[in-house]
Design brief:
The complex is a heterodimer of chains A (263) and B (290). Chain A has ten helices and two strands, in the order ααββαααααααα. Chain A is an all-alpha fold. Chain A has a single domain, classed as Orthogonal Bundle (MetI-like fold), CATH 1.10.3720. In chain B, helix 2 packs across helix 3, helix 2 packs parallel to helix 4 and helix 4 packs parallel to helix 5. Chain B is globular and about 50 Å long. The chains are: A mainly alpha (263), B alpha/beta (290).
Chain lengths: 263, 290
């Protein structure tokens, strides 16, 4: 009995919800928004991308998973840079009041700036890089936009370390690097990972903007190109892909995150 | 080599926002002999834990000095094994690694095998032979405190500092751990300073019980010798008529000082739990064993 209740909640209800949205979509495309392709038309037009996910027919005409991999590799570059810069910055802000006073306001000011605003700056920054300029600008934008949750959560995690743990380190006279490795880092790790997860979400969010504006091949670039080519079905395909990939990334990260929690 | 630990005119005060100073502990004097077990007893908030954390070096004193084994104590260090009220284990490490963290630090010249033996020895002495590779979350409160005790002893410290180590445990577990503590203490001949508010615990464990007056401006009120021979058995001690007299003495002291707080308020210091003004005069502490 309980088993069935479980399945109803986790399988049937999401299906019902999706069907409701599909219905609404179908209704909309047949009534007030004639330009919007209906679900059937979208599938017919997109199936070549989904059924041959790794095909490459042209620079901006590739299978959807191939696009996803391209986008993910770009996101990964920016994300890794964000973590490499953000984690130590967060540690410094969390450990030193002076450092926090100097940089915390700056973080708060830069945090809400949209990727669309950073990208042109990135282009200007890497103007001298020639052919690679657009990739570097995209990586820069992803890094600087996705860094903040890591910075702020790491700082919060370091501040939240109980005095007890620090006392243990003091009583044992651990050296600075030992205190960092054996006490501070493990103690702040759960918070840090929450930051890492949020950062990854943002990094993935930024990819579309970055690819749109730089015209790089990838899910976002494809979306923009198909909009310009008036093939609206593919926009919906891209949106769904971005959503699903983002969801999977978040799930994977929270799996790791939950393993780090110690109760 | 008569006085191993010497606290002279030890004091701790904090500056208050108004520019004044709130004095927690004032002119605290105490001498502890080598191998002696001394308890500090007093009401909660009287500053006894402050004294202990000053000796531990975690909370620097504002006046006076601490000398341990002929050297002045400056800052914390592994020569004083501290057992905190909550076990303070690092939750991402197993019991074994929690103890090993300190042992590796103190015995860095010893071989890996020797260090492993030290850690395992102390963990089995406190009764954790079976569970030394479990994390704190898998251990009961009492078992965690056992790890805390093992960690303190494994450092081979000059002195043990225990800050209400059994306060969070149920009576049975507390009795058991007091026994564990005593047998380890007896075996290693450590000097120990225990902070407690449990009268029976103080009598059972200590050679001397130091009664502290209530803060602010807490100081040594009275010192009572506990002449029972060691090793002690709880049953025999509790059956002895002397036990009741010692106990009555401690309780009388503590009761008298429960009414002292009103007087402190008149001095301009604000106690944590202000009581109504009370003009009853108090003779200096001259309670003696009858």
């Amino acid at each position: 009995m309980k088993e069935r209740g479980f399945k109803l909640d986790w399988l049937l209800l999401p299906c019902l919800g999706s069907i409701a949205v599909l219905l609404l979509w179908w209704l909309s495309s047949n009534t007030w928004s004639k330009e919007l392709p209906d679900p059937m038309k979208t599938w017919n037009s997109s199936k070549i991308y989904v059924l041959e996910p790794f095909a490459k027919r042209g620079e901006l005409d590739q299978g959807i998973l191939r696009f996803t991999v391209l986008s993910l590799s770009l996101v990964l570059k920016g994300y890794v840079i964000a973590l490499i810069l953000g984690t130590p910055l967060g540690f410094c802000i969390g450990l030193s009041k002076t450092f926090a006073k100097a940089f915390d306001p700056l973080c708060q000011v830069l945090r809400p700036v949209s990727p669309l605003a950073w990208l042109p700056l990135g282009m200007v920054l890497f103007l001298g890089a020639g052919k690679n300029a657009s990739e570097l600008a995209a990586v820069f934008t992803i890094a600087i936009c996705s860094m903040w949750p890591t910075v702020l959560n790491t700082a919060a995690g370091v501040r939240a370390i109980p005095q007890d743990y620090l006392n243990v380190a003091k009583v044992l006279k651990l050296s600075r690097s030992q205190t960092l490795r054996k006490v501070l880092l493990p103690a702040a790790l759960p918070y840090m990972f929450t930051g890492f997860r949020l950062s990854l979400g943002i990094a993935w969010l930024v990819i579309v903007a970055a690819e749109m504006l730089t015209g790089r091949p990838g899910v976002g670039g494809f979306l923009w190109q198909e909009y310009n080519a008036l093939i609206y079905e593919h926009i919906i395909l891209c949106i769904l892909t971005i959503g699903i990939v983002g969801f999977v990334l978040d799930r994977l990260m929270s799996l790791v995150e939950n393993r780090l929690k110690f109760a | 080599m008569s006085d191993y630990l010497e606290l002279s005119d030890l004091g701790k005060s904090y500056e208050t926002p108004g520019g004044g100073a709130s004095i927690v502990v004032k002119d605290f004097n105490l001498k502890v002999k080598r191998g002696e077990f001394v308890s500090l007893i007093g009401h909660s908030g009287c500053g006894k834990s402050t004294v202990l954390s000053m000796v531990a070096g975690l909370n620097p004193q504002t006046s006076g000095g601490i000398i341990l084994a002929g050297k002045e104590v400056v800052g914390p260090g592994p020569d004083r094994g501290v057992v905190f009220q909550s076990p303070c284990l690092l939750p991402w490490m197993t019991a074994y690694h929690n103890v090993a963290l300190g042992v590796d630090q103190v015995f860095y010249t010893a071989s890996k095998e020797e260090r492993r033996q030290i850690v395992e020895y102390y963990l089995s002495v406190v009764g954790l032979e079976e569970s030394m590779h479990k994390r704190p979350s898998e251990l009961s409160q009492g078992m965690r405190q056992r790890v805390g005790i093992a960690r303190a002893f494994a450092l081979a410290p000059k002195m043990l500092l225990l800050d209400e180590p059994f306060g969070m445990l149920d009576t049975l577990t507390r009795y058991e751990l007091q026994q564990v503590l005593l047998s380890l203490w007896g075996r290693d001949q450590r000097t120990a300073l225990l902070v407690t508010h449990d009268v029976d615990e103080a009598i059972f464990l200590s050679d001397r019980v130091v009664m502290m007056t209530d803060g602010p401006e807490a100081e040594v009120g009275d010192i009572m010798e506990v002449p029972f021979t060691r090793p002690r058995s709880r049953k025999e001690i509790m059956a002895s008529p002397l036990y009741d007299r010692l106990r009555a003495h401690l309780i009388e002291f503590l009761e008298v000082h429960a009414h002292k707080k009103g007087r402190e308020k008149a001095k301009g210091c604000v106690p944590k739990h202000p009581l109504p003004e009370n003009n009853e005069s108090h003779s200096p502490l001259t309670l003696q064993l009858k």
